[in-house]
Amino acid sequence: MGGFRARSESARSGEHKPAKATGYQQRRPEHRQRKSRAKGSGDKVRDVVFGVLRAVTVDDAFGNLVLPKALREAGIKGRDAAFATELTYGTLRARGLLDAIIADAAGRPIEKIDSVALDALRLGAYQILRTRVENHAAVNTSVELVKAHGAGQASGFVNGVLRGLTRKKPETWIERVAPGNELADISLRNAHPEWIAQVFAESLGVDPTTEEGRSELEYALAADDARPIVHLAARPGQISGEELALITGGTEGRFSPYAVYLDEGAPGDIAPVREGLASVQDEGSQLIALATTRVPVAAELPGRWLDLCAGPGGKTAFIASAALSEQASVDAVEIAQHRAALIEQTVRELPVRVHVGDGRKLEEIKSLNIPEGGFTRVLIDAPCSGLGALRRRPEARWTKSPEDVPPLVTLQRELLTSGLAAAAPGGVVIYSTCSPHPKETTDVVRSVAARTGAEILDVTEYLPELAATNVAQTKPFVQLWPHIHGTDAMFFAALRPASRPADK
Fold this sequence. Notes:
Blueprint lengths: L8 H4 L11 H4 L2 H6 L8 H16 L3 H12 L3 H16 L1 H12 L8 H16 L4 H14 L6 H12 L3 H8 L5 H7 L4 H11 L6 H14 L5 E5 L6 H8 L2 E2 L6 E4 L8 H4 L3 E3 L2 H12 L9 E4 L6 H12 L3 E6 L2 H10 L5 E5 L18 E7 L14 H4 L5 H18 E11 L8 H11 L2 E3 L13 H4 L3 E2 L2 H4 L5 E6 L8
Parallel strand pairs: 5-6, 5-8, 6-7, 8-9
Antiparallel strand pairs: 1-3, 1-4, 2-3, 9-12, 10-12, 11-12
Helix pairs in contact: 4-5, 4-6, 4-8, 5-6, 6-8, 7-8, 7-11, 8-9, 8-10, 9-10, 12-13, 13-14, 17-18, 21-22
């Protein structure tokens, strides 16, 4: 359940979409734009890419959900699929930076540019500024896309702007729109909104006004802007990380003994994945699951474990595989019916019972038989802003806002309180988020622990694999980073419930 699964209010209200204006946009009816998707530009790969970009702009779609389906329907595989993925995700990730450069080159705000033309300019600009695609190919295909999508009147404008971009080096354009060392410039150079860069700086404990702090922050933002490689997770007790690496030709992970890195390829085509022996899972998620199984608990406790926010089931399957060797079972709670169905598919043949219900109100879930004395191990992968997983949700950084965070913090506190109340004295609760935002991480844990009397454990003690990284600076918590660990920016903490839970 971890991660932010809804658009921000600003996105839904159209804040980040081009506003109505005179010129091309005024003359283009929306129905014509949708109808034009059936037409082609003559470039199959870019047709698919542009279709995804338009779905994100027009329908507020999620690029990482739309693209795989579009590739399958178009029959695009192999190197062409990899190229399409790079163009799509790269363009979406860099949107804010691209928009600033396009506005400068065009001599007008992006709000005054036709929506179809703007998406074509973004795709063309990304190729010119951030890939090795020949400039003439980037320009010509973008012009053809505009024509194919019913905005032919804008083709000359698109051609002129993109040809203008080719006349200067990419570094020159970046220097024009982000010339200084202020936080706004640092964030724009690295394709992040300023408020997210501020959150990163706060979590890293660096001062971006100093040279050292600025260097660390730029390093972190650059890594967060890079394309992530695929991480596989071997299921504990079913296949080892070493065996999975040999089968796939991948590289064993740095930290999790079950992790394997793949530079390319389609994970779904790999036999261990098809057979349920392995899955696609960020190494950071694996470390969270490992912590859930490693923190010691009272020996006399029954083998009932709880995954409080289980959807879509990756961590559930991991801890359930480990539970087999301890003759334990896992109760997985998910509030959304469709995500509960995904969990059931993921945990086939594992000792897992899936329940649909609200993790804050466990007593109302009729199918959940809460054991007398409480659950031995509780995992709470709480819904969050998803600021730690921006690499995998390419457009998300431009659709989120600071206003998304406070309601999530309230939910996170309620879930952690519920999880602690459901845990047995002597048991353990692991709280995690795919966000480095202090309000969602350390602040939540400390406030709930103070209110309930729970003990905050030093979770770093149980993950010696991380000893050579920065975990000493984050004790008693673990905060992972793309630029340090190569994982998503995940946070997790371990708590021991009070012997007699205090009133909520």
